[in-house]
Structures are given as C-alpha cells and as structure tokens.
Amino acid sequence: MKNCAFVFIKPHANTEAVQALVKSELEKKGLKIMSEGPITSEDIDSKKLIDQHYYAIASKATILKPKDLNIPEEKFQEQFGLSWKEALETKNVWNAMEACANLEITADELDTEWGKAKKAKKLVKFGGGFYCGLIEIEGKQPAYIFNGFFMSMRTKFTAPGLKIHTYVVEWEEKDLAWADFRGVLLGPTDPAEAPKESLRGQILADWEKLGLTEVPNVGDNGVHASASPFEGLAERLNWCEAKLEDDAFGKEMLSAGISAKFINDGCVDPQVTLEDGKKGSLFDALEDLDAAKCLEKLVALSKLE
C-alpha cells in the first residue's frame, strides 16, 4: 500500500514562488504529485469546503442551526441565567454566520465582539470546539452566538479573489514515514518551531522573498497537509470531490470490510469508541500512521462501533 495525502498552500502564502518551492520539495523527497491545481475562494465559500474541513468547529458556526445542536442545558442555564428553551424563544440565538447577517457586522467585527464576551466571562464551553457567547452590541438586541470566532478564520479562505493551491501526493512508506512527512517535510504547526529545511521553516525564513505580505504564524503557517491516510481520504472527498469507491485508500477500506457509512461518518472526525473502551477523536487515533497500519487500526475501530 502507498501513502496518499492532500496538501494545499493557504491563501496568505499562495504565490508562484511558494508554489515552486512546495512542488520542488515534494518531488525532492520522492513524492509523486498525482494532481494539482487551484480552488477559488468563491468555490470554497459556496460549496462550504472550509466548513467541512473544520467540521467540528464549523458545524456549530455555519452548518447547523442552534436548535439542532445538542446543548448541555444545565451548563447553558448556569452560565446565562435562563433556560435553553427560554433562550430559543427570544429568537436571538444564532450560529456565527447568522450573527454576521442579523447584526449587520463583518467577520472581523464579530471576532472583536467575541473577544469582548470572552474577557467579560460571557462565554461557555460545551466541549471541544463548541462554545456559546453572549454578544452585546450597543443599540442591538443581546444575542447568544455559537462559535463566533470561526467566521474570521473562514474569511481567510473565502474573501473575494483568494485561492488555495492543492496537491494530491503519493509515496512509498519505506521511502518516507508519515510522521516524517509531517514533522520533517512539512514542519510543526508553529513555523517558529519548524526545522529550517522544512516547508514551513523555509516559508518563515524567506517570507518576503516568496511574496508574502506578513510574517507566517501558527494560523497562517503557509501549508496544510493531511495528518493521516484516513484524513487524506476525507480531504480528497471534500476538496477534490473524489468518489470513495474510486479512491485507492477508499477501495482498500471497503475491501477490508469497513462499511461506507463508517467511512463517511468518520470524515467529520467523530468521537468513536477506542481500543481502551473510551471515546475519542477518530482523526487523533490515526494521526501519523502509515497506510497499512492506518487500515489495520480502522478495521479494529470499525468493529467497536
């Protein structure tokens, strides 16, 4: 089995010079580029590609309506002093996308208001990537907003005129372990901690020469790459509109007896039963595993569901 990952240059770093650097470094490490090309911000926005990519966060911010969320009602009441039912009856309960429209504010303005709510301790955390904040803007009705921080993140991909540049890459496990593909070739999430020869390290060191307008940071770190073969599959299904039954790793999973439902449900990183009997992130359980080991673990985990 071969390793296959999805890589993209983030909008803030998507220059011709960075594209040339990324392509050169991928090929230098022996990775075969199966396909590459741009995806516009207009497509990212209309098809909600970034929302699916960050589903755990975005589902509460842009995809699902608050009434459809699984709210820990006791936590809500303890934080805000009214029941969840009473809050819904006010009709001022919105996801982040609705908040921008209804309050007539931009993503960055919502992010600012979210920061104020956090400072005033008017936020409650319900779980990983799942927050509600009371946003109070002078002259407007107070509103209960879910994951208000996400819209500013989203705008970095969806503002008019932006693009990402994508690569689907394949390589032999014996030539490069997945952990080294991420840790050595790509580099850590924080580019300041990345090896100088890694992609993120090089982009940080030469950001001006490469045509970037600002110094890279943890969020704007130049390049994204799949954390595991399964995450790579999920990203190809989302960004490349690949078909499960046609994708090489997808075929391997189906042939191993893993149901299409388990695979499709798994693409949004659900909490699953792990081998120790506890619940945990499916993506985290598979991180940095090479294709054969990843498939083996997926088979085991699918039998626990």
What keyword list fits this structure?
four-stranded mixed beta sheet, globular, alpha+beta, 10 strands, 305 residues, four-stranded antiparallel beta sheet
Explain what you see.
With 305 residues, the protein is α+β, with helices and mostly antiparallel strands. Among the domains are: 65-155, no CATH class; 243-305, no CATH class. The protein is 45% helix and 18% strand. It is built from 16 helices and ten strands. The protein has helices at 16-28, 41-46, 49-53, 55-63, 73-80, 84-90, 96-103, 107-119, 150-158, 178-186, 199-205, 229-239, 248-255, 260-266, 282-286, 291-302, and strands spanning 2-9, 32-40, 93-95, 123-127, 130-135, 143-146, 163-172, 223-225, 271-273, 279-281. The strands form three sheets. The protein has a four-stranded antiparallel sheet with strand order 2-7-1-8, with helices on both faces. A hairpin with a 7-residue loop joins strand 5 (130-135) and strand 6 (143-146). Helix 8 (107-119) runs antiparallel to helix 9. It is globular, with a radius of gyration of 21 Å.
